[in-house]
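Lab meeting minutes (informal)
Scribe: AK
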Amino acid sequence: MNTPAPDALASIRNLSKRYVQRRAFSRTRFAVDALRGVNLEIRHGSTMALVGESGAGKSTLVRCLALLEKPTDGEIWFDALNLLSLDRGQLFSIRGQIQLIFQDPVSALNPGMSVAEIIEEPLLIQMWGTKYERRRRAMELIDQVGLATVSAPKRPLDLSGGQRQRLAIARALALRPKLLILDEAFSNLDLATRESILLLLAALQAEHALTYVHVLHDLRLACEVSGEVAVIHQGQIVEHTSTERLFSHPEHPYTRLLLQASGPFDAMHDKSAVEMLS
């Protein structure tokens, strides 16, 4: 295998994931190939959208990248390390560098914990600092993501949808990661809240040199939030290019079908978010 490009934070090489399932009311087993020889590079400081229909392999790919699933074959390089060759102790230390933010923060946040405790939890798991240092870090993040300091003792259900997403971002940032994966993180937000979260992400990216991967099914939204797009279809990356080129010169037939399904849309008419996050 070739080594990753010098500007690559993550490099996925010939990645495959096969699930063996059993048919209902039968002992017969069959294989499902969720990923088939995926190759993808994610540059330091970039913002990429991973786009495809339901069942295309988006979630499986990012779960493998976030070390929540073990691939059947292939390599995952992150920050010049081959993750699949590391032992459990090495993986434990690297997990904090790759963080997932889910579509529904309510299901991802412990309703019995306060805002401050939720942010402190990954620090506690990683045995980071003293109790006082963890609380100080939590308060810093509450301020950074735009949650009022008085929110620290509140529970997730006391917050609005936008505030919960800000809390999810704060928790993801607790261990100072290099890569944030946002899985449909805007789908439950209204337009105004989505724009405010995009502005927050742009500010955090500039301050902390973060790299983002947005998992989406909507090419319109991909244009708004990212500078480049990787299109996945039937477990394979079929196109990976800049957002502008994808809209002006789509190469793969599946990409053209996705564009047609999105309706008339000129990516050049709304570049504000792309410029913020590219």
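Next up, CB showed the second protein from the same session:
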Amino acid sequence: MHVPKDQEKYQQLASKWLDKTINEEELRVFNAWYESDPDGSIEIPESFAQTEVQLEERMLKRINDRIHQTSTYSLWRRISIAASVLLLLGIILYLSMYTGTERYQSPLTIHQDTISPGKNGATLTLANGQQVKLSDIAAGAIQMEDGTHLSKTADGQLLYDEGSSANSLAVQHTLSTAKGEMYMMTLQDGTKVWLNAASALTFSPTFNVQNAREVTLTGEAYFEVAKDKKRPFIVTTKYQKVTVLGTHFNISSYEDEPEIKTTLIEGSVQVSNLSSQTSVVLKPCQQTIVHGDNTQVQQADVGEILAWKNGDFVFGKDDFEESMRKIERWYDIEFVYKESDVKNIKLDGWISRDSRLADVLRKIELAGNIKFEIKGRRILLMK
């Protein structure tokens, strides 16, 4: 088979497209190449079928045959199977997402507008049980029934006022996100908190305690704690307590996960296992995994841990079911496993949390030799 002289150029463009780093000029060139006459100077490999449907079927078979030789699957890494395979993969994705025509559309793509990604939103519950849907409140100053003063910024964040008149030690607020929501708030002491989907943080609006600033977390949150040498910041979850003076760290403590993971970004934290009554002190880029009486310390991939806060899913060390649970929380869906051995797949790669669900599932399909069938908000998963 003759290899076109400028094939490397289009391989690079295909790779950039896969990485979402292609610019408008490069996309124009790539589009022009695709629309050019294949009988001219650019010779297409024999695996290029007569129709796009045939093309996808042949490509999926070739990729899956190669993938079966390993136990780890990549979402869309730069596949080194063969230069033509990478090039054709770019063409498939180009056809399915970048062209404005109806040349090709899979069953999943048909549903791409039905389930959108999560959004910024949360509910604030006051001590008297009053619930405030923050997405329904306009930006500006807000006074709660219990006397608390706070404000909502133009970009939707919640900011507690240092001059709040709520001074009872019994006053507690809870900020909670549903599935498909995340939210950022600034506490009265200046501490910033990002709540992931299906999470809740309970706290005093004024931290009116002399010796400590205490909050309670379920789900996942990232903290940038304001320094206060006289009052440590304490985060309590179901099975552990984290104590800091001023630092950045992430805690994942979902009820449907078997472990609690605390990852230190900078500074220092003490993690106490409430079951074993033991404690460890973390250094930056270290992570504790608390499971029952056991506390394990390991090095952490900070970029992977904070991907949710930065707008991505990153799958590497997580097992398949844990990766799927992350997608469930963000899109407010439920995966139903039709075959148990599907759970043994290992994913490796990233997906933007701004993507529609159909696009996410398509990329996982291409990587893991699995299929999804959308039925409302229930997603059937099979080989």
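CB comment: Residues 37-55, 58-87, 94-113 have pLDDT under 50 and may be disordered.
No objections, moving on.
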